[in-house]
Specification:
The protein is mostly helical. It has one domain. The protein is 72% helix and 0% strand. Helix 1 runs antiparallel to helix 2. The mean pLDDT is 94.
Length: 97
């Protein structure tokens, strides 16, 4: 089986992770503060997702120099788990209608 070619470099992935973190945390804060009953639930889900991405970003060894504890391969597995949480959040947190 052939490996899938990489579309972006680890450095580009790191930049995208920071953008995603900022987006989730900003949306989470806004939904929690101004979103009403369903918005608060969506806000909590966004804050949880943002926290997961932030933690993975801070711990990932994007450069491969061993200075951070999380390998890029492990980071990918966390990305998949976080993606699953984000996709199922409306049902899990009760804000799907």
């Amino acid at each position: 089986m052939q490996a899938v070619p990489k579309l972006i470099s680890p450095k580009q992935h790191k930049v995208l992770d920071w953008i995603v973190t900022a987006t989730y945390l900003t949306a989470g804060g806004l939904f929690t503060a101004f979103g009403g009953r369903h918005g608060k639930r969506a806000g909590i889900a966004a804050l949880i997702n943002g926290s997961i991405v932030l933690g993975a970003t801070l711990l990932t060894d994007y450069d491969g120099d061993g200075r951070r504890p999380l390998s890029f391969s492990t980071h990918r597995k966390l990305d998949i788990g976080q993606l699953s949480l984000a996709a199922s959040a409306p049902q899990l947190f009760g804000f799907s209608e």
